[in-house]
């Protein structure tokens, strides 16, 4: 017999796809903080983010009238019409992240806009606001996620049995990636009550942040930046691409790819880098016209589809080849510096 699933069940299933582990929740909340114009973001975690994950930003804050809708699915301040998706300039667009989190964890928000006299604390469960009251607080937003997967027993058990150190490592990796890509934003990340493992408050450039994080003084070389554009072509789908980054340092295979400021995965691009600089640390940023990227292919927005992937790959290969010719990266020689 076919029956319609209850909305509650549908929402929880969907939520489980968006939030598969603490690091997914963190990525979403970091993007929200950046969308909110934050220049300072602090992350603190307990038990790899399973017991507690807190993100505190100094961004624009959330007004009282928006709090009831905050965790409702498909409620967003960023998208109005489907057509806007083509030129979307924010990370978020479908109002799914906080809704999802509220379906698989206990969520508390403390937020204040600069114009407000005080902050408000609101708690959420299954997409709905449960409580809301005034409290003291600085301008900005603090989100606290507690007891992740408390209502999905199997997943919680699997996580609790697994390594929380590994989950924390993934949190730190996501935070570090954004710290590299957003050097003007100060990032702090640590386990609750412990000294922080990431603190980029004082570093000012991507290169410095990358060097500091990788504790590497040598062997880091710059990729590009380079731009390629088919000027004679008048088609709005004509190829256009800018890419840049750094490669070298430790042989730890830390591969960071940002496409139009989104942290994403792309196997073909990673393979291309590996062909030239196997296992090296690599930070790569690629910018293409917004309409050339489909960000809507995956619930976690982790995979993006590029309209001209083969052209992007060719441009990347050309740059990497040039680098290899100019500065052969042999272990003894140590290039750069
Ligand atoms: P989306 O980012 O797709 O809009 P989210 O569920 O991530 O969906 O967030 C819902 C809404 O909550 C956002 O559109 C934004 O208005 C607000 N919001 C979330 N996080 C923050 C934050 N850190 N600062 C200010 N506003 C926020
Ligand atoms: Mg969002």
From TrEMBL:
The keyword Nucleus applies. The keyword DNA damage applies. Residues 220-321 form the DNA mismatch repair protein S5 domain. One of its GO terms (cellular component) is plastid. One of its GO terms (biological process) is mismatch repair. Keywords: DNA damage, DNA repair, Nucleus. It is found in: Nucleus; Plastid. GO terms for molecular function: ATP binding; ATP hydrolysis activity; ATP-dependent DNA damage sensor activity; mismatched DNA binding. Belongs to the DNA mismatch repair MutL/HexB family. This is DNA mismatch repair protein S5 domain-containing protein.
């Amino acid at each position: 017999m076919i029956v319609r699933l209850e909305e509650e069940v549908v929402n929880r299933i969907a939520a489980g796809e968006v939030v598969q582990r603490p690091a997914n929740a963190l990525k979403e909340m970091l993007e929200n903080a950046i969308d909110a114009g934050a220049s300072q973001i602090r992350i603190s975690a307990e038990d790899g983010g399973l017991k507690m994950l807190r993100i505190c930003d100094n961004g624009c804050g959330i007004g009282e009238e928006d709090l009831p809708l905050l965790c409702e699915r498909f409620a967003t301040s960023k998208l109005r019409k489907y057509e806007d998706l083509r030129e979307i300039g924010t990370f978020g667009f479908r109002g799914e992240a906080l809704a999802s989190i509220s379906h698989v964890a206990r969520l508390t928000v403390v937020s204040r806009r600069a114009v407000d006299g005080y902050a408000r604390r609101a708690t959420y469960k299954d997409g709905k606001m449960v409580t809301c009251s005034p409290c003291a607080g600085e301008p900005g937003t603090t989100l606290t996620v507690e007891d992740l997967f408390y209502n999905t027993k199997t997943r919680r058990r699997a996580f609790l049995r697994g390594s929380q150190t590994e989950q924390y490592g993934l949190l730190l990796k996501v935070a570090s990636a954004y710290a590299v890509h957003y050097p003007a934003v100060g990032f702090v990340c640590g386990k609750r009550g412990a000294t922080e493992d990431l603190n980029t408050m004082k570093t000012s450039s991507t290169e410095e942040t990358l060097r500091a994080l990788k504790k590497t003084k040598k062997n880091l070389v710059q990729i590009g930046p380079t731009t390629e554009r088919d000027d004679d072509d008048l088609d709005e789908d004509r190829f256009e691409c800018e890419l840049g980054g750094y490669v070298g340092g430790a042989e730890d295979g830390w591969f960071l790819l940002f496409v139009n400021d989104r942290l994403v995965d792309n196997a073909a691009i990673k393979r291309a880098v590996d062909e030239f600089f196997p296992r090296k640390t690599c930070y790569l940023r690629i910018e293409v016209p917004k309409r050339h990227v489909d960000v809507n292919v995956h619930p976690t927005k982790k995979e993006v589809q590029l309209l001209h992937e083969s052209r992007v790959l060719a441009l990347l290969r050309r740059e990497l080849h040039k680098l290899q010719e100019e500065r052969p990266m042999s272990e003894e020689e140590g290039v750069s510096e």
